[in-house]
Design goal:
This protein has one domain: Flavocytochrome B2, Chain A, domain 1. It is built from three helices and four strands, in the order E-H-E-E-H-H-E. A four-stranded mixed sheet has the order 1-4-3-2. The radius of gyration is 15 Å and the shape is globular. GO terms for molecular function: heme binding. Pfam families: Cyt-b5. It comes from Aspergillus sclerotialis. One of its GO terms (cellular component) is endoplasmic reticulum.
């Protein structure tokens, strides 16, 4: 026995999700802001560390959902700090402590197993 346990599957979705191959098309901050769930003709998007995920099928990110504050922006800092305050939903996270950076990485893993990657934030410097 090597003493190495396999990585826990705590981030795996309960129901397997068939994801499309990731797309890294540039999405401007302005375009991202229009994808906050308020326009039914646009997808609902959330960016983490500059990578944009399509969360349209999750009602939690809709205008009436509990996580709507994250929609239409790069909310890396808010996710890392477990904060729902609008002022924390911004991309800068470099000054966070290691624990918060780990939480952010865990959110990124969680999202990447559930939602299609549809782009990256144009000119983002936080990935």
């Amino acid at each position: 026995m090597s003493g190495h346990e396999p990585e826990p599957k705590r981030f795996e979705p309960k129901v397997p999700v068939q994801l499309d191959p990731p797309k890294y098309d540039p999405i401007t901050v302005e375009e991202l802001s229009k994808c906050d769930g308020t326009d039914p003709n646009r997808p609902t998007l959330v960016a983490i560390k500059g990578i944009v995920f399509d969360v349209s099928r999750n009602q939690a990110y809709s205008p009436t959902g509990q996580y709507h504050v994250f929609a239409g922006k790069d909310s890396s800092r808010g996710l890392a700090c477990s904060s729902l305050k609008p002022e924390d939903c911004r991309p800068d996270w470099y000054d966070l402590d290691d624990k918060e950076k780990t939480v952010l990485e865990e959110w990124y893993t969680f999202f990447s197993k559930r939602y299609n990657i549809v782009g990256k934030v144009k000119d983002a410097t936080n990935y």
